[in-house]
Write a structure and sequence with these properties.
Structural class: alpha/beta
Strand content: 15-25%
Order of helices and strands: HEHHHHHEEEHHHEEH
Helix content: 40-55%
Radius of gyration: 20 Å
Number of helices: 10
Shape: globular
Largest sheet: 6 strands, mixed
Distance between the termini: 53 Å
Length: 279
């Protein structure tokens, strides 16, 4: 396994071509859910900018966790409150219709974030004793083998712990995820793709080294029955990585052939449903 400095330097000098097609996990997820929506958002530029209190909360607590874990002298609660209040004010101004809740709701979110952060150091020390942070917000920008496309993404956190690498994606939620969501193929696809391309970025090719790279989600829960933080491992087996890569290439195959089929099962929560773009 490469050391931290070598890992930071690997593949950082790929020449960027802004015209070169690329796919992120979000784009793949959108295409899998509905090809027509992918076309509208990613090819025709019809993405609607919006916001809500959950997005403000998630962004704020993500910033606080990142800064607090990288430097234990940082006041995570202070970082969170400052960021939360700043983003809330900015988003209220930009999207007034999305923030019509009473002020007590915002106060609850603020207090819930502080509760999560008050447990974060203790949780990480108990779950990953003597862990070391390798990277945070690490960019992945890697060619997709056999295509002219690039895979692009940002990994929230990579830890070194117990002679293993742990790739972590943080998710905020109300009370957590049930077993159905934890086992959802599309949910787990994100980390499977991150593992596959992170290993490529760092030239990790030996099977024994690939097996040392684990993946998991860190749930940051506002109103849980028990703990506010939960880490659970996602499957990153060779078979799962191969399946994830095939799914990615299959999406590219269909996109290049302009096969943008509508999925009527995904209409209920689609912003284009029953509009002129998707009557």
């Amino acid at each position: 396994m490469k050391n931290q400095q070598q890992q930071k330097e690997t593949n950082n000098n790929i020449e960027r071509d802004e015209q070169q097609p690329r796919l992120s996990f979000s784009a793949v997820k959108t295409f899998r859910e509905c090809g027509h929506r992918y076309k509208l958002e990613y090819l025709e530029g019809h993405k609607n900018e919006t916001s809500n209190i959950h997005l403000v909360f998630g962004s704020s607590i993500h910033t606080a966790v990142e800064k607090g874990l990288s430097n234990k002298t940082v006041d995570m609660n202070g970082v969170f409150v400052t960021e939360f209040d700043k983003l809330l004010a900015e988003n209220k101004k930009q999207f007034p219709g999305c923030f019509r809740q009473p002020e007590t709701v915002f106060q609850e979110f603020r207090a819930q974030g502080q509760t999560i952060l008050s447990q974060t150091h203790e949780y990480f020390d108990a779950t990953f004793p003597s862990y070391k942070i390798i990277s945070q917000e690490e960019e992945i920008y890697i060619p997709i083998e056999g295509t002219d496309w690039m895979f692009k993404g940002f990994i929230d956190m990579v830890l070194e712990w117990n002679d293993k690498i742990i790739i972590i994606d943080s998710k905020t939620s109300t009370w957590g995820w049930d077993r159905w969501k934890k086992s959802d193929e599309l949910v787990n696809l994100q980390l499977q793709l991150y593992k596959a391309f992170w290993c490529k970025k760092h030239d990790i090719t030996a099977e024994k080294d690939i097996k040392k790279v684990n993946v998991g989600f860190l749930l940051l829960k506002r109103t849980p029955k028990k703990n506010n933080l939960e880490f659970f491992r996602a499957s990153g087996s060779p078979a799962k990585l191969e399946k994830a890569t095939k799914l990615l290439k299959n999406a590219i195959f269909n996109i290049e052939r302009k096969m943008f089929l509508k999925n009527k099962l995904s209409c209920n929560y689609c912003p284009f449903y029953k509009t002129e773009l998707c009557p």
